[in-house]
Amino acid sequence: MSLVFWPNFKFEISPKRLFLRGIMEAYQKPFVEIAESPESADFFAIPFEYFFVEKYAPAYLSSIYDAARRAGKKVLLFDYTDFVDRTPRLPPHAIFFRVSVYRHHQTPQEIVMPYFVEDLGKTISLHQNKPECATVGFCGLSRYGSRVQALKAWVKRRGFRSLLALRGDAAPSVHAGGIVWRRCSLRAIRQSSAIETNIIERSSYSLHRDSVSGDPQRVRAEYLLNMQSASLPLCVRGDANASQRFYEALSAGRVPLLLDTDCVLPLEGVAPYEKCVIRVPHNETPQLPERAARWHVAQSPVSFIEAEREAKALFQDFLRLDRYFEIVFDREQSPYKRILYER
Fold it and tell me: What is the DSSP track for 199-257?
């Protein structure tokens, strides 16, 4: 079932999804209210991950589409998976909430939502003073487990990029996996003397029991210490075209150094990202350290701390999922008012 409905049903979350149950415990009030009848509902909704339903229960999906059409309602779909390269097949009355999309692929029916992440502001404090030098921190998956794995990834990437080119994709290069972009980013960061770095590279994904290497608590503590010590956490996409670390950094009151791989952020145009995010286009990856250093030098001691406060406020006011859905479903002020409520 989609995590969006966890506050409603409190369903069991697999212990293999490390730390997720604790994250969800922060959301006790439902994001949506379950209506007593179709007639009294504002929307119909599929309470499961869309791409899994599309694959394994297409008849069920079609039946909900048909029922909503007969009732004159729109259907809300949700997907928390990494399947950014899959294109949803949506009827005109469907609205698709997903955690990532490519800007050059996004349709008017697709709305980007944040990840559910731990609020690190509860354990990580703002800097008391502006550091003398910018410290770019990174801790995460950026290495292949073996040469064979690296070769397989290269072959797959080349084949997929060729396919995208044949299809006339507007930006085939951004479809490269997260490890590719992370390695390119780290290479640029390491070559610069204008910044300090705190980099921990891993060859495994650390938020799942089956893939984490080592004791999960120790690995997580190492990650949190890396976040705390950074003035500018490097945030680069993973398998999805989005970064969980980006939301964690904001929650901790850190200014993210975000590599923009043609990504769309939640509530763009409403949330004031420009106040506390250093956003570097993917075709300017070599300039990551220069942009970080330039931003740091431009800050006074006061404006540096203010940017961290803005980052924390951005998370609390726009990107916590409860606040996010309050904004999205506000009938009068929602930036998606036309898509959601106009028939």
Answer: EEEESS-SSBTTT--S-HHHHHHHHHHHHHH-SEEEE---SSSS-HHHHHHHHTT---E
